[in-house]
Design a protein that fits this description.
It is built from 11 helices and 4 strands; from the N terminus they run αββαααααααββααα. It is mainly alpha-helical. The protein has 2 domains: about 30-65, no CATH class; about 105-315, no CATH class. Strands 1-2 form a two-stranded antiparallel sheet. A two-stranded antiparallel sheet has the order 3-4. β1 and β2 form a beta hairpin.
């Protein structure tokens, strides 16, 4: 039994490390139904039409309908399968130039996010669950108190020679808190956009920590961004699976992937993608978390400072 498990594990590891193999060209002679060209292979060299083009059947209708979602050409199911079992190897394969077998990362992110939001909405509607804003209100009350203190210190600064009352400070504070609140509501309702914005920020931090790797060599920032988009789709897929299982113990399910699972997914992704040892991957992941946290906090502070200056200038 143990030998059998070892053999299956050996085959699985071999499949993980093996890049996608393109099927060999067919020797069958075809005549293109579009331009009449005779050729061997899967596609006409003159106009590009598939050799499989024929009279429409119910199978063709289903295949064309599924092709809108990336299932007709099997690339979307392949992406999902590989992102679950060989994520880093698949992303490395894509970055090295094997683009045709895989579904485009941005389209895939949009589809998985849209599907996830739709299904969670249906489940929550079935259970009669509405968005709980209590936590968000507490968070913004805390943010508002910090902004209020910063605004008062700025107003009382000797370099600012403006007679400003406490009511004016409260008005400015309320404007800024309301603006942040509205921004977060918009990002929550446009999750694909918020994920892309986060990945732009996170990709820079990951690129700084992993830009030179044994498997990919010197990585560009653009390549790192594409890798992060694929990883975002993987996290959404894992969140969906976790959501379905959580329906067994939580009313309405839990649509947020626990942090330990997310961190483990990132660790495996980066280990397979860059080819570092486990210890080097763990160490670089720790540096990535520290750098990304500092980078995002710095940008947030700068954004709040600019917003405060704009609001103060409006009075």
């Amino acid at each position: 039994m143990i030998n059998l498990i070892k053999e299956y594990w050996k085959r699985f590891r071999h499949w993980q490390r093996t890049p996608y193999e393109v099927p060999p060209l067919s020797d069958t002679q075809h005549v293109c139904l579009n331009c009449g060209e005779s050729f061997n292979g899967q596609f006409c060299p003159r106009c590009g039409q598939s050799a499989k083009a024929a009279r429409f059947t119910p199978k063709h209708v289903l295949a064309n309908a599924l092709d809108v979602w990336g299932a007709g050409n099997r690339s979307m199911p392949r992406n999902i399968l590989h992102l679950l079992f060989k994520p880093g190897y698949m992303i490395a394969d894509y970055l090295k130039g094997h683009r045709q077998p895989y579904f485009p990362p941005f389209k895939m992110l949009f589809i998985v996010v849209t599907t996830f939001i739709f299904i969670t909405y249906i489940v929550h509607y079935f259970y009669g669950i509405k968005d709980d804003t209590q936590t968000r209100e507490i968070q913004f009350e805390w943010v508002g108190s910090i902004i209020n203190a910063v605004a008062i210190n700025m107003v009382n600064d000797q370099s600012i020679d403006l007679p400003v009352s406490n009511n004016t400070v409260n008005t400015r504070r309320q404007k800024l808190v309301t603006g942040i609140h509205n921004t977060q509501q918009w990002l929550d309702s446009h999750r694909a956009v918020s994920i892309l914005i986060f990945q732009v920020l996170f990709a820079f931090s990951a690129w700084v920590c992993f830009r030179n790797s044994p498997r990919l060599g010197k990585l560009t920032l653009s390549e790192q961004f594409f890798a992060q988009v694929f990883i975002s789709s993987q996290i959404i897929i894992l969140s969906f699976i976790y959501f379905l299982f959580s329906l067994l113990w939580a009313r309405g399910g839990i649509d947020t992937l626990p942090t330990p699972i997310t961190m483990a997914a990132y660790l495996i992704d980066y280990k397979q993608l860059y080819g570092f040892s486990w210890w080097k991957t763990i160490w670089r992941n720790l540096k990535l978390v520290i750098f990304a946290t500092f980078f995002i906090l710095t940008l947030s502070i700068v954004a709040i400072f600019i917003a405060l200056m704009v609001i103060m200038a409006s009075f």
